Amino acid sequence: MTAYILRRLLQALPVFIGSTFLIYAMVFAIPGDPILRMFGDRTPTDATLAALQAKYHLDQPFLVRYLLYMGDVFRGDLGTTFQGQSVNEILMRTFPNTLRLAILAVAIDLVVGVTVGLVAGLRKGKIFDNVTLLIGLVLISMPVFVLAFVAQWFFGIQLGIFRATVGPGAPWGDLILPAIVLAALNFAFTMRLTRASVIETNAQDFVRMAYGKGLRSERVVPVHILRNSLIPVTTNIAANFGILIVGATVTEGIFNVPGVGNELFKAINRHDSPEVVSIVTVLVIIYVLVNLGIDLLYGVLDPRIRYVKK
Amino acid sequence: MSEPLLSVRDLQVGFRTQGGFVDAVRGVSFDVHPGETLAIVGESGSGKSTTAMAIINLLASNGRITGGEVLFEGRDLAKVSRREMEDVRGRLIGLVPQDPMQSLNPVWRIGFQVEEAIRANGIATGKRDVRKRAVAVLREAGLSDADRRLGQFPHEFSGGMRQRVLIGIALSGDPKLVIADEPTSALDVTVQRRILDHLDTLTSQHGTAMILITHDLGLAAERAEKMIVMNRGRIVEAGPALEILRDPRHPYTKRLVAAAPSIASTRLESSAGSGAADSGASADGGIDLAIAARAARASREAAGPPAIEFRDVTKVFKLRKPSGIGSVDFTAVDQVSFQVPRGSTLALVGESGSGKSTAAKLLLQLEDKTSGTILVDGKDTDELSGRETFELRSRMQPVFQDPYGSLDPLRNIGNTIVEPLEVHRVGDRASRRARVLEVLDQVALPASVVTRYPNELSGGQRQRVAIARALALKPDVVVLDEAVSALDVLVQAQVLTLLADLQAELGLTYLFITHDLAVVRVIADRVVVMEKGRVVEQATVDEVFANPQQQYTRELLDAIPGRDLLV
Lengths: 310, 567
What we know:
The complex is a heterodimer of chains A (310) and B (567).
Chain A: H1 2-29, H2 34-39, H3 46-55, H4 62-74, H5 87-122, H6 127-141, H7 144-158, H8 172-202, H9 205-212, H10 217-245, H11 249-254, H12 260-269, H13 273-301
Helix pairs in contact in A: 1-13, 5-6, 5-8, 5-10, 6-8, 7-8, 8-10, 9-10, 10-13, 12-13
Chain B: E1 6-17, E2 20-32, E3 37-41, H1 48-55, E4 63-72, E5 75-76, H2 82-88, E6 93-96, H3 110-120, H4 127-140, H5 146-149, H6 159-172, E7 177-181, H7 189-206, E8 209-214, H8 217-223, E9 226-231, E10 234-240, H9 241-246, H10 251-259, H11 261-270, H12 289-297, E11 308-320, E12 327-340, E13 345-349, H13 356-363, E14 371-376, E15 379-380, H14 386-394, E16 396-399, H15 413-423, H16 429-442, H17 459-471, E17 477-481, H18 489-506, E18 509-514, H19 517-523, E19 526-531, E20 534-540, H20 541-546, H21 551-558
Parallel strand pairs in B: 3-8, 3-9, 6-7, 7-8, 13-18, 13-19, 16-17, 17-18
Antiparallel strand pairs in B: 1-2, 1-4, 4-5, 9-10, 11-12, 11-14, 14-15, 19-20
């Protein structure tokens, strides 16, 4: 087990280095001098310009800059933005909000999607199955901003159940509406995947055997059908969690959630290369770790692929 | 006579399909008395499994009972509620499923699955008592260290062990009747016999009646007192099992008896001097394998180098260790040597995992050998250039076990058969077309199948297509890897006869890989028995059957059901 995790982490290393290098190269390939942009209409003196360039290592060749930057990252320092803020601090402030939003969205998706999918799978071809398929199709074909604005207008403004935008400190209650929107985006996948998985499991010999040995259907459905069907579903949801955790930029923007996605969007608009690179670097690390988690989760869910002792 | 335990009266079962409502069981009636074993025999699609599943209402979701009665101790099970049926299953009627590999839930421990059955049937309550019963069930199933085994998962059990556990579960509720649905057809041959013995012992100890569903007449006659033979949803013959086997009345039963390789193999001895006609078709329109086999063996053994020769061939696979770092060696084929003379058939026999299929892949150059020499027509395959290897492949064609898996579902039959001709650039469009029709004719398929797709054909027809594809390039050697194992007895007999005819006609050399010694008898000249990658015995068919030298070979021979019944 430990050896497996170690091997996976070693495999993640080239992914990490390669992706950061690409991001670094691309961000600095954007035309325009970032230092000059900091001054807007004013023109800095040559001395100031040189000092600032030295501070951000912009006077060095590209490869040296990259290596200096990576050295800082490995020491745990993600650098400072052009506006002088510490990127570490920005992430400490925004990441917890994104994490809470992601957890909420995934929880809603899991409960609603799996329940609906289970019932649809057990009643394949009946009315419930067809109606939920239709709802799923509508949700899946709607662009996220349409869904977000409609939800905001209807639940936030017309009905007034939720606040239309997230207030200061992003309390849990304010996060429910954006979480529902995010969950709705994935609902169709979860629901259809659960349904397909339930139908497949239901046709397995061991389900027939479970009935054959005298079990009641109240036991067969959760213990033998649902439990086995959840293997692909859980990994799908976990993968979605990985996507949400690195920031749902559009949804966070619409609901004004002070999260990572929102912050990244602003940084890109400001051409704040150090911030963009640092945030994306952290997100790559998180994404790699989440995917490792998914692979380990497989082993927990399915004993056949448990990474056995020996 | 006592009251029957189960009395099925005019049972009718149908399935709702895309093509409308299909009748699968059309008026079946039989009785099972307490403690008695009844065998239901038939081919796939005959309705035998459907009949059994209808008794305990475990039909697929699109199936239902459309008429008749299922009287169990006087109560009509066709009319009870879902809840009542749940009480009947496990407690009154136990089920031993067909495929033990698929019938235990892979995500739960064995103990969990045994215990939930014990609890559901009210055999014991309370954690400790349930546990104690579960240990007892596994002990009875013949697992010595039952305590430890309860904590293991199904994939840590062999197929035979799983079936023992399932038999244990089926009998844990001490039911009055057990339905065993092809309980050993998914298991290795040598394991089959032990499992059936075990099932016999337990049911007679408990005084349990049994319905044994099987496609194998020999097996049915060996295990059951009474037998019913089903064809297309109807009973065509019923009576004492041995009598039916020795003196079948109905033409269908006669054909089944004649086609069963396990029985044909013993008849080969008795009909040896009778000088039968040299065609496989016998007077009643059926196929007599014994005669067909003799016909095929008449012209044999030309001079020259052997078509195939293996010299000390070894194949080592590197398996990744569980930790994922480093690897361990696994020797699948170990110092194997044999020769196949031109125009003859060599049978490579062994259980799954014995290395026989790997040997075939080495011959076909689909895997690289680790050491040793493979000679084809006296030429070392190592010394061939890439181009010569390509040409070699055109003279050596495979036919695989699963006709469903080895045909591309998106290609029609004509395109499937013409593909090897195109790959090897043989002839032009017109001549390829002509060749396709020619080989289809050789495998006795109508020319009209050219435009049809694999899913429109039956299993036997598909296997004929696979053979036709193999023949298209006019090969010298055909490698048949379990090519008839997935087929029903009658279809199997047809395909075996076809293979024998083609060999006589075209002078083909066969490497015939199988786990079934009964089939070997009717098709092969020489036998190589493999166990754990090594050749343990090598002789002519007659020698192996008359005087097996190895314990392992004897076990394989004993595994042929019903082979002593007709002597």
